[in-house]
What does this fold into?
Amino acid sequence: MTNPDPYLRGHGDTRYRVSHYDLKLTYKVAANRLEEKAQLYVEIAEATNRIDVDLHGLRVSKVFLDGRPAKYRHRGQRVSVDVGDRVPGNRFLLEFRVSGKPGPVPGVHGTAGWEELTDGSMVGSQPHGAPSWFPCNDDAADKATYRIEVTTEPEYHVVANGTLTDSTRSGATTTWTYVMDRPMAPYLATVQIGPYQTQRRRASVPVEVVHPQGLDVGRGTAFERQGEMVDLFCDLFGPYPFAEYRAVIVDDDLEIPLEAQGLSTFGRNLVEPEWENERLVAHELAHQWFGNSVTGQQLKDIWLHEGFACYTEWLWSDHRRKRGDGASVQERAAEHHAALGPTPEGSTLADPGMEAMFDDWVYKRGALTLHAIRALVGDSAFFDLLRSWTQEHAGATVSTDDFEAHCLRWAGSAGDQMDALLDAWLHRSEVPELPEVSDRG
It folds into this structure.
C-alpha cells in the first residue's frame, strides 16, 4: 500500500515527498474559472518508477519532469506520472498545467476544498479537500513550504498562507503573492478571495482581521480581543509559530469556522459577541500551535488538534472570568464531563474511526484528558509540558504515542499514575472521574 493514512484511502503516496510547492493561479471569480501552473519539488522516498499525485475535478493539459514532457494518466482524482527508475534520494521538479472549474471534494464528512461564495471564493480543505485546487501529495505528514500567486480581478482582495510579498496591478488584473516558509500540510493550504478590507490588532506578532466592507468586526464583536488572545496563547503555549495571523470573515454564513496555517476563516454569522462565537475564535487560533505547527501524523490522532483547541476555549473562558464575564476551566470541565458518555463501541480517543473523528465527544474527551494531566502534575509543570511539546515538535508531525511518551517524561515520580491516566482517557471506553484543578492565577 502506498496510501499513508487508512482513514483517507485513495489519498497520498508514500513513495515520494514534496519539499516545496510553487502555485501560480489565474482565477476569474464570476465564471469560477481557474488556470494554474503548479510546480512540485519532489524527492523519492521509496524505489519506484511511478508516483501518484492527487487532483480532483480539474483537467491536466501538460506534465513536465525537469522541463521535459512526462507520460501521465489521470483517472479519478489520481494523476499517475511515469518518473523512470528512481531510488530514495532522487530529486526532480514536476510541473503541472491544469484548468477548469474548481469545486469541493466529497467525503465521509461532506465536501471539502474550493468553494464558491456569493461574491468570491474560499478554500477549507480539512481533511481531504486539497486536491480540489492544486496537484499535491495529499498526506498530512508530507509537509512542505509554499509560494502561492493568485491573479484575479482588481476589485477583489486575496489572502493565502504566509507573508504577503507582493501585490501588483497590471491592466485588468491584480496579482497577489504569498510565501509560507514554514512546513505546512497540504490540507492547510488555502486561498480566500473576496471584496475585503483589513483591520490590524495590537499584539506581539502582526494580527489582522480581514472582513467584508461595511461589516463591523471591532469593539463589541467576537473579534474585539483577537490580539489579546494571540498574546495570551503565546504565554500559555510558547511563541506564535508563524510570521503573522489573520482571521478572515467571509460575507456568507458558514456552519463552522475552519483553520488553515497562519489564518482562520469564519462566516459573518459568527461575528456577534456571544460566547459560542468567541470560543470558536479562540479554538481556531489555538490550532496554529496544535494542528498546524504540530500536526497529527494520521487522522486517528485528531484529538491532538481538537482536544487541545477545545481546552484552549476553556482557558480563554477562565481568562475572561478574571474580568467578571466567564466561567472557570473547572466549571467548563464539569459541564462537559457531565454530558460525556462512553466512547462508541469499537472507538477510543486514540483511534475514534474515520466516521467519528469530528464527533463532539472527541473534542470534549480530548480536552478533559488535558485537564486530567494538569490536575496530576500541577499548573507549572502542565504549561511547561505544553510549551515544550510545541517547541520540540514545531513544524513536524506527531502521534498519540509521541504525546504519551512526552507526558511520561514530565511525570517524574508520578510516572505510574500518568501511565494509568493516559490509558484510561485515551484507550478505554468508560469515562474516568472528573479531575479537579484550582483556578489558574
Q: What stands out?
A: The longest helix spans residues 303-321.
